[in-house]
Design goal:
The protein is mostly beta strands. Helix content is 10%, strand content 26%.
Length: 109
């Protein structure tokens, strides 16, 4: 569940991507559509939010800044699974098949 961090009340326009930049301010960039490239980000509101590690910050439906706990997975789970699955692998020796050549007997000219 998300918790509100800061009340900003940003009014959104369609065609723009709204996000919290590295400085903790609300910014927006023009979205890429139909072969057109996106635009450079521009600041909408200065907030100066200090981000904490382990949280995902986003702009909610009301235009305020909210955060939720990041669910981490993948790497740690993969390492644990790899450690438990690690066993000695024995190389199987395969026998070589010999191909017999058949000689046709017949008349030579």
């Amino acid at each position: 569940m998300a918790e509100k961090v800061e009340k900003v009340g940003v009014k959104r326009e369609s065609g723009y991507l709204y996000f919290i930049d590295k400085q903790g301010d609300v910014s927006r960039a023009l979205m890429a559509r139909g072969g057109k490239k996106g635009g450079k980000p521009s600041k909408v509101t200065k907030v100066g939010l200090k981000k904490e590690k382990g949280y995902l910050y986003f702009i909610d439906k009301q235009g305020d800044i909210s955060r939720s706990v990041m669910s981490r997975g993948g790497k740690k789970k993969a390492k644990k699974a790899k450690k438990t699955a690690k066993k000695k692998t024995v190389k199987k020796v395969s026998k070589k098949k010999t191909v017999k050549k058949s000689v046709k007997k017949g008349k030579r000219k």
